[in-house]
Amino acid sequence: MTEQADEAAPRPGLRERKKAQTRDAIRTAALDLFEEQGFEATTVDRICARANVAHRTFFRYYECKEALLFGWGFGRLLVEEFAAAPAELDPWAALTHAFDRYGGGVPEEAAGTTARRRELRRRCAHIRSVHEFAILRIDALARDAVGIAAARMGVDPDRDLRPAAIGALLAGLARRVVVDGVTDGPQAWVTALREVVGTRGDGP
């Protein structure tokens, strides 16, 4: 988002601020414990005790401890920007628009927290549950992208492969970031995407 857009945005209400504080407390407690004693030795029980929250509260914000390595709403912002892109844009232009708008992180998360998560994720990449969680979330991101692309194009994704191509592209980018640990920012992806789109053929 631009600075102007941020300034114009209304401040969150008390309920939203409390939810953000709870989410931050859980996230901070988890990251601290992962660093102190290791991911596998850290249980949800210990995270809840450190954050002073109940189990049911933890699971309102995170489906499992693996989710804490990927941030809240992993991929959600990019998909939302893709869906909200101006209707007159073709799917590739809409995708570029989404990357332009997407900041590459979670708005309520400090840059230092994002860096900690990435480093911990790198250290935990060999853990099966972490890898499987990443693949499941990437697959979900791709499915969402296929549905949005199909709706924008007015086609049946079971008969037209173009939406699946867009979903595969996003899945590949997400895998590069969250599985392979590539740290290129969203603008690098925008540049690459524009170059690829600029060389695509004019076939049907």
UniProtKB/TrEMBL annotation:
Q: Where is this region: Disordered?
A: 1-21
Specify the species: Embleya scabrispora
Q: Does the keyword Membrane apply?
A: no
User: What GO molecular functions are on record for this protein?
Assistant: DNA-binding transcription factor activity; transcription cis-regulatory region binding
Q: Which UniProt keywords apply?
A: DNA-binding, Transcription, Transcription regulation
Q: Give start and end of each HTH tetR-type domain.
A: 20-80
Binding region for DNA: 43-62
The keyword Transcription is assigned to this record: yes
| Protein name per Swiss-Prot or TrEMBL | HTH tetR-type domain-containing protein
